[in-house]
Amino acid sequence: MLQTLQIKNFALIEQLNIDFSEGFSIITGETGAGKSILLGALGLVLGNRADLTSLKNKEKKCVIEAYFKIKNYSLSDFFTQNDLDYDDVTIIRREILPSGKSRAFVNDSPVNLQKLQQLGNYLIDIHSQHQTRELSDESYQKQLLDAIADNANVLKDYKSQLKAYKQLEATLAKAQEDKSNLVKEQDYNAFLLEELETAKLKAGEQEEMEAELEKLSNVEFIKESVAKVLAIASEEQIGVVQNLKEVKNVLQKISSFSEEYNQLHERVSSVLIEFDDITNELSQSSDSLIDDPEQLEQVNQKLQLIYTLQKKHQVTTVEELMTIQEVLKEKVSYSEDLDTLIEELTIKIEGAREQLNETAETISEKRREAVPVLTEKITELLALQGMPNARLKFEVTISDSYYADGKDNVVLLFSANKGTDFGTFKKVASGGEMSRVMLSVKAVLAEYSNLPTIIFDEIDTGVSGEISNKMGDIMKAMSKNMQVFAITHLPQIAGKGDTHYKVFKTTEGDNTVSELKLLSQDERVNEIAEMLSGKDISETALTHARELLK
User: RecF/RecN/SMC N-terminal domain: which residues (predicted)?
Assistant: First the structure.
């Protein structure tokens, strides 16, 4: 229940600190006194969006705090799931800064508006006048039936199944689209793949073949040059090898005279060994050099093929061509696998559809079973409110479509009087009839929900006299199980309250503020008498007010 409300610098309220009690609370006040401001402040606490117009003093921040006693409402799981500190008396604070920024806190932990709205749904139902027309909305009608049918768990299963079903359908649609696109590209991809596979590409072969081509293209010149080098190296009298041997022999003779000569001798010996290796390799290379036009042509053709493929695929290396080859192989293979995938998905979707249909049928059956229970309870309450001949009928039909809350189409039909045909609720119900039906609905829902608090904002619009008296009785009965507020202009309802608060405005100079105060018994008598007769309160009105309070 809402225990305390503190408001600073909001609209016409400079500062307000008010405690509320359990049971049935009445809020009255003249039009424009600030009742809507109270609801606006509560709306901010429950997650409504705010702006700078909310600030009375634009240079100071607005702070609204609401204290809720939630010990008996099994909300600890919500706090755990949302990583919030639980407290039996939970404090929700909303701040609006002069910059326009807004902050929200639950037990001093910062939260976003979405989380605040989710928590608010467990705490308060604020029923404003315009919400009476919710009854004409099909989704709201389903919610009514689901509350009576206790469909919460089965609806949770349905939504989970629907999500999985839609994911399967999306996957199938993607696979079918891929298949359609790949069919168009299949022949071309297969051709490109075959072309690359025929080339038998190997990493690094382009560089090797380019070197081989260069070598084969210059065989004669290379052989001539190698022969010349070998001749210089191996000439019997003046060849490099012979001269190096001579140098080595001379140094060997003096190597024992000093370490310096010995090192020079060793270095020349190393040079001689290295030069011998060079001449041997040149000799072998010369022997292997063959003028082979056929090999030259093969290398040239392979290189030209590589260059052509690189140009076609807009790359510069064999490695990139090999990567493209793998991608093409995957595409061709994927196209072949898609038929299998599509077949598997089709089977899964059929199974998911059957499961979804079974769950939707369960929801529908439970709704149909709830219809007589709900209509009986509502018609009983309508009879108490002066509508003994009112009749409601919920038509529940299952469709081929999958909605977020099942497969049902629901239509609420209404007849207010004997001898009149049923018509859709929004077309045949008057404003006063809508108000009485909605109050009856809320009273029935109070039996099936564990909501701590409900606020009726002038639900008595369009009714008066004895009918309003009966509406007050219904709200009074609801307050035995939950905290009920009624913002009203009717003295008959005001007299039913356990506590009575008055909203009023005061003006000092150029400053106008709204205030809220708890009325004493005598003040209640005067307030209700004023509601009966206006500012000039008569003794008759006072007597009538006392009677209403009894």
Answer: 1-509
Going by the DSSP 8-state scheme, the letter that residue 452 receives in this structure is S
Report whether 414 contacts 425 (CB < 8 A). yes
CB 543 within 8 A of CB 68: no
Task: State the DSSP H helix or E strand holding residue 410, giving kind and residue range, or none if neither.
Answer: strand 406-415
Residues 6+ apart with CB under 8 A from 173: none
The string of pLDDT tens digits covering residues 308-320 is: 888 888 888 888 8
Q: pLDDT class for 8, splitting at 50, 70, 90?
A: very high
| SS3 category, 495 | coil
CB atoms within 10 A of CB 246: 10
Q: Which residues pair with 495 in a beta bridge?
A: none
Question: What distance separates the 2 farthest-apart alpha carbons in the chain?
Answer: 152
Per-residue pLDDT, averaged over 487-514, amounts to 90
User: Can you read off the two tokens belonging to residue 30?
Assistant: 């003249």
In angstroms, rounded to a whole number, what is the distance separating the alpha carbons of residues 85 and 76? Answer: 9
Domain boundaries, the chain: 1-123+451-519, 176-337
What are the structure tokens assigned to 440, written together? 């009856």
Asked if residue 516 lies in contact with residue 20, where contact means CB atoms within 8 angstroms, the answer is: no
Distance CA 179, CA 181 (A): 5
pTM of the entire predicted model: 0.67
**For 408-467, what is each residue's pLDDT tens digit?**
999 999 998 888 889 988 888 887 888 888 889 999 988 887 788 999 988 877 777 788
Taking the C-alpha atoms of residue 47 and residue 112, their distance in angstroms, rounded to an integer, is 8
Q: How confident is the model at residue 478 (pLDDT cuts 50, 70, 90)?
A: very high
* Contact between residue 203 and residue 319 where contact means Cβ atoms under 8 Å apart: yes
Mean pLDDT of 265-274: 87
Q: What CATH number does the domain located at 1-123+451-519 have?
A: 3.40.50.300
Show the tokens assigned to 304. 């030209």
Q: With 0-12 CB in 10 A as exposed, 13-18 as middle and 19+ as buried, what is 390?
A: buried
Based on its alpha-carbon atoms, the radius of gyration of the chain, rounded to whole angstroms, reads: 46
Reported as half-sphere exposure (CB side, CA atoms, 13 A), residue 102 has a value of 19
Nearest to 457 by CA among 438, 479, 470: 438
